[in-house]
Amino acid sequence: METSIILNQIILRTTKKMARKLSTIAPDWWDYTTLEDDIISDAASLTAKDLEQLSRPGFRVVFYDTLEDFYLAEALEYISAWKEATSDNPVGICGPIGPTEQLPLVARLVNELNINLSDAHFWGMDEWLGEDGKEVSISHPLSFERADRELCFDRIDDEFKMPESNLHFPAAETSKFIESWDGVRCAVMQGGQGDIKHWAFNDPPRRDGDNKDEPPSPEIYRKLSTRIVELHPITLAQNARTSGGGNITLVPEKAITVGPVQTWKSDKVSIWQAGTHDNPFGQRLTALMISKGIADSAVPMSLLADHPNVQFNYYRGGLGSCEIEMH
What is the CATH number of domain 20-318? Predict the structure, then answer.
């Protein structure tokens, strides 16, 4: 009896020690606040020089000194990918809304350089899901497809335009979008990084069911394909701030997102951080986790630690500092 009591006490102490913290943001969800304190403090202490030194084989950190250079470099990734496309070797790029400043530059470069896009492809990363259970129409003020078309594709001269059949935007019925990745090489998947440390809308999940005590393992999360997702409260707040003037009632609670399956089909993942989306801490945290191989689905971006070719691009003036500053 005494031995049994001692064993139960050991098990109880071990369980308490191993239990993950509750989120300080949304206790019903997983997110970066459930990480161990030492990872948090290590990330917050990183300088710009420290970040540059996080580069390793398969993960490169690049800094740009001006916004002009930053967004031009992002736009050139579109051009470089599309220039590789031929009739027997179609090539495309998967691009985000957020950032968007590169998109008009892409159109201008295509027109000025006379680049024929007849064999090129483009995949949108994600789209909002309406209350009717379908992807929002392009008349919706926050439509990502609308933004891509108005800021880029509608500005390309007719003689160079990409065929409509080569433009792929996520829909609630995901099969057609998923199939569009077959037989076409994605040279690069671009992305920004949200406050919740996602790429596309690959948010951390709710803390329930099989994920109540631990977030999904990296192996399980990486099996996710394009799908409908419920968005983390932080994602809703961020999109209201960056796109809706703070009016969170405009922001749908669900979306369709490209998944890790499509991400791992991409030759390269290129993340662009100008300091207008994620904060100084977040820009440091994911780079540290990827560099050190710390993959945790509570921080979805960290799962890119296992992708063979990832590049983080920073605008030096947007990196900011994690030092305390009262406002």
Answer: 3.40.50.1360
